[in-house]
């Protein structure tokens, strides 16, 4: 069974973006970012919510095109629609059965890209297997929380931690079971 890996940048106070989706304080270069870019090459599938996909438009992503050319994309949305989507980009309604079936398919681990609310929904439903945080040495004080507004208690086990000269750390956790939802 494939794992879903939530691999995301976060501030020390647990935000994946600041107010108004501001990500300007997050590192855009350095050894930690290089490691992240290298790690992305091991995934063949990416999942995300509509807001995360549309966030890519700010950085030149064209609607219906893959954000990661080497990955199949599943965007979970009830409202997003493309006229001429690339074959690698599929919009599907938020459906736990689809996600569970995707995990059973052959392939690499599945990259969960961004999306605090989508990640919170997945965590609440026990579908995230690993959390990999790019912890930036910043405090944002507000914005989009790591797991959105979902209130879930889950045990994690740290399995790896790498520190970089700029203060970033990449910390990998295995996800235990959801304690309450």
From TrEMBL:
GO terms for biological process: riboflavin biosynthetic process. GO terms for molecular function: 5-amino-6-(5-phosphoribosylamino)uracil reductase activity. InterPro entries: DHFR-like_dom_sf, RibDG_C, Riboflavin_Biosynth_HTPR. It comes from the Bacteria. Residues 2-169 form the Bacterial bifunctional deaminase-reductase C-terminal domain. Pfam families: RibD_C. This is Dihydrofolate reductase. It comes from Ekhidna lutea.
């Amino acid at each position: 069974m494939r794992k879903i890996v939530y691999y995301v940048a976060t501030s020390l106070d647990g935000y994946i973006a600041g107010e108004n989706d501001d990500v300007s304080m997050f590192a855009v270069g350095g050894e930690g970012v290089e490691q992240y870019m290298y790690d992305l090459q091991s995934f063949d599938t990416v999942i995300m919510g509509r807001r995360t996909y549309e966030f890519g438009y700010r950085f030149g992503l064209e609607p219906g095109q893959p954000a990661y050319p080497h990955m199949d994309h599943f965007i979970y949305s009830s409202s997003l629609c493309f006229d001429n989507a690339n074959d690698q980009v599929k919009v599907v309604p938020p459906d736990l059965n689809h996600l569970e079936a995707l995990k059973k398919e052959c392939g690499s681990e599945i990259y969960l890209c961004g999306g605090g609310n989508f990640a919170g929904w997945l965590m609440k439903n026990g579908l995230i297997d690993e959390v990999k945080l790019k912890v930036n040495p910043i405090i944002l004080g507000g914005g989009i929380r790591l797991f959105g507004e979902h209130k879930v208690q889950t045990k994690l086990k740290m399995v790896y931690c790498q520190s970089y000269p700029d203060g970033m750390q990449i910390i990998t956790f295995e996800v235990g079971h959801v304690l309450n939802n």
